[in-house]
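>> received
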Amino acid sequence: MKLLAQFVILTMFVTGGSAVAGNFISADNPGFQYFGRCDGSNKKEVIFDWPGVYITCAFDGTACRSVMKGRNTFDVYVDGQYQCIVDVKAEKDTFLLVDKLKKGKHELKIVKRTESNGNATSFYGLMLDNGAQIYRSVKKTSHRIEFIGDSYTAGFGNEYLSRDCPPEQADSLMYSTTNTAKSFGALIAARFNAQYQINAISGKGLIRNFNGIDKGKEFLSCYERTLQSSINNTGISSLPWDFSTWHPEVIVICMGINDFQADPPYSDSVVFDSTYSNFVKFLQAKHPGVKIVCCATQVWPTKAFIPRIRKIVEDFRGEGNNNVIYFEFETENTALFGHPSIKDHEKIAFELGTLIKSVTGWKEIIKE
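>> returned
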């Protein structure tokens, strides 16, 4: 995404019926860096909806507010220290991120926690102290890694402490207790100081969604879109994602759980194997030299998932394609609706991170 020159206005910026004095720094300022799939075709409004998107910059001054809209929640970090959760509403508004800082330059990171399958978030920029500016973050990353999957990868309900919840609270708990920032993908990225994308959608399968729902809207119908929510909302742009803008060194695929879970009929094994293999080849063509880790785990009530993925990987490696790697994991699934808990995600992150370290030689910043 190309960013225009700095746009700073000394103004009274009005949003949601409130006025905030200071410098408004527009979303197209080159000091902002956007990680994950974002639509910046409207230069003053950066739109995103995939989980795990995050924004970084450095800024001057003692306080910082963001101007955003689109229902989602975000973790805010300043100078590497956690500050707060920001709960962005549907309407455009200004949200306090941090105040009462010492004068000087500070590092900011805004991390999307939630899934947003039917809506997107718009980021318009920051409000800073009068005369303050933003700059590119001085923190450098070492690697790039992409995580592709479903609810397990998105961190669905991972902060909830029980499998069951009152039915009338299900929607709000799915929203409030899903924290992609604590998913195994984000944890692994932190371990290796890596940029990351988490391109995952709960309930999606490769050729069959959970319980066969939303036929025709399986994962691959969304994957090549910049905004995946466009498949459920005709008012949202469906620009194709430009794969040339960001090349991961490692891709982790955890896709297929929903193909073989819940009530039959399940995915046809021959069609599944062919579709999965072709998807791996597609990713290798888009990202030459990438290492692809294919994940499998036990699902209920079938036992088809693990042998399918193991056989696919064996076939690739039998053809001399040793950049395709198999990984199997187990979880207790004590979180919301039988999903992996924070403890499960930490376990996957440790085991999968150790595998990634062994096949890449990456150095870690978080000790084992």
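>> The longest strand covers residues 18-26.
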